[in-house]
Amino acid sequence: MRPAGARAQRRRQQQELQDAFRNNSLEIRNRHGQQTREQAAALAKKYEKPVFGSCQVFDLIRRLAECVDPTDTGLFNTSQLVHTLQVVESMEDSGLDDAEFKLVALVHDLGKLLLLTDEAPENITCLNRPIGAFEPGVGLDNVAFPWNHDEFIFSRLKDYLPPHLAWLLRYHSIELGPSEKYMDERDREYCENYLLRFRPHDLGSKSPFRLPRIRLESYRGLVEQAFPERIPF
Ligand SMILES: [Fe+2]
Ligand SMILES: [Fe+2]
Fold first, then answer.
1. What is the C-alpha separation between 85 and 74, in angstroms, rounded?
2. Ligand 1 centroid distance, CA of 3 (Å)
3. Average per-residue pLDDT in the chain?
4. Is the pTM of this model over 0.90?
5. Which of 74, 138, 203, 227 is the most buried (most CB within 10 A)?
């Protein structure tokens, strides 16, 4: 075959792979959107006990290198460790020199380590919108959301972090449109001061082509200061 023909075939193959990734992502997102309150409660119960044993948080971050989010069409097969470094680097580049935000960036997607287990991806990934309707202003803690990696990491780290950072982990993937009306005063304050400042870095830095310049090792001190001991994970 002539080189031009081989190139065209290669391009077609790449396009097919990209379409397949997008279709699979859509199917997973549809299934995530169908999670019921009962299923969310059952998943919360299922994950009460440690899955990975007693772990150093820094080692868990390193294991994100093995994780690919099959729904993320901003990253494709880019690892969650690269995503994590992209988020931290985005903060560095924008001058957000705040240890709390960087710490949250480093740990926010650790719940996606469940992708390394046999858990269905629709129970781990995707943005979250409320299941059903609630009283306006009732507070997000009283709203049912699909169980996903947010709730997992919240449950694991909430006892080691101040309330606003635990809140940010828990609600980092809520869709603001359908969730905002259920926020109480505390949620609104945390949303404005933390989620709205975190999200542009989390969602806005994603790219399969952005090669991080920073090294995870430079953040070991920050992580080990916040989590000096092994924790049940
Ligand atoms: Fe996330
Ligand atoms: Fe993320």
1. 15
2. 42
3. 97
4. yes
5. 227
Rounded to whole angstroms, the Cα distance separating 206 from 75 reads 6
Ion ligand 2 nearby residues (CB, 5 A)? 109, 202
Q: What is the pLDDT of residue 111?
A: 98
Three-class HEC string of 30-70: HHHHCCCHHHHHHHHHHCCCCCCCEECHHHHHHHHHHCCCC
Q: Residue 161 is encoded by which pair of tokens?
A: 């972090």
Distance 218 CA to ligand 1 centre (A): 22
Distance, CA of 190 to CA of 78 (rounded, Å): 30
CA angle 179, 184, 187 (to 5 degrees): 70
CA of 185 to the centre of ligand 2 (A): 25
149: its two tokens: 């990696």
Domain residues for 163? 3-232
